Amino acid sequence: MNDQQLLRYSRHILLDAIGIEGQQKILAAHALIVGAGGLGSPVALYLASAGVGTITIADDDEVDLTNLQRQILHTSERVGMAKCESARLALQQINPEIKLIGLQQRLQGEALDRAVRAATVVIDCSDNFTTRHAINRACVAHQVPLVSGAAISFDGQVSVFDTRHANAPCYACLFPPELHAPEVQCASMGVFAPLVGIIGTVQAAEALKLMMGIGQPLSSRLLMLDALAMEWTSIALLKNEACVVCAKAH
């Protein structure tokens, strides 16, 4: 690191668990963020400010006025702009040293595989089960840790699925794809604005810990928040030995 970087990231470097070595791992890491909305906004902002060397943001949507209540990456002036481009502009202002890649597309197939293969950590900030399951399959296939978050109304949840470890569950162990869970959208249910900030910030923290290999990640645990009562609940997750996605990964 140069003198400017030592100064910029000095408050991380002062932490014994991080130090110069941990910050260098962050600088060398590549984060793939799928979704530049309510969850993706705080994730991207904190990863950029922390100095993640390369951040790829994938989102096929454009900024809409209804997004601005909670999607803090975007501004009124950028309504109608592609979200990945709006995100790039915001993050470039925060940290011009990092590499930013915007993908204005719904990642699937070979494009998804290619993006996951290139990543150190994948952060799922999408809003539908089809995308979540596709991301999970790619992460299991390429042994890339996945930080998954969801938020609707006043309820949020976050977990880490790291199938580099043989006994760790994947997203499909928790939500089997054959169950066809009903989709719940913010457009119909609404979402409490600070909720996505809380869940997204936890996702960012877990992603940084994974990059550095420090602390105890949320792997094999599901952390749930009831924001009306401001109560957290943590439950243990077990690998499904019959899971159609990860049972044969090892």
Written overview of the protein:
With 250 residues, this protein is of the alpha/beta class. It has one domain: NAD(P)-binding Rossmann-like Domain (Rossmann fold, 3-Layer(aba) Sandwich), CATH 3.40.50.720. Helices cover 38% and strands 18% of the residues. The chain has helices at 3-8, 10-13, 19-28, 40-50, 83-94, 109-117, 129-142, 171-174, 186-189, 193-212; strands spanning 30-34, 54-58, 99-103, 121-124, 146-152, 155-161, 221-226, 231-236. The protein has an eight-stranded mixed beta sheet with strand order 3-2-1-4-5-6-7-8, with helices on both faces. Helix 4 (40-50) crosses helix 10 and helix 6 (109-117) crosses helix 7 (129-142). The longest helix has 20 residues, at 193-212. The chain is globular and about 50 Å long.
Quick structural gist:
The chain has 250 residues and is α/β, with parallel strands linked by helices. It has helices at 3-8, 10-13, 19-28, 40-50, 83-94, 109-117, 129-142, 171-174, 186-189, 193-212; strands at residues 30-34, 54-58, 99-103, 121-124, 146-152, 155-161, 221-226, 231-236.
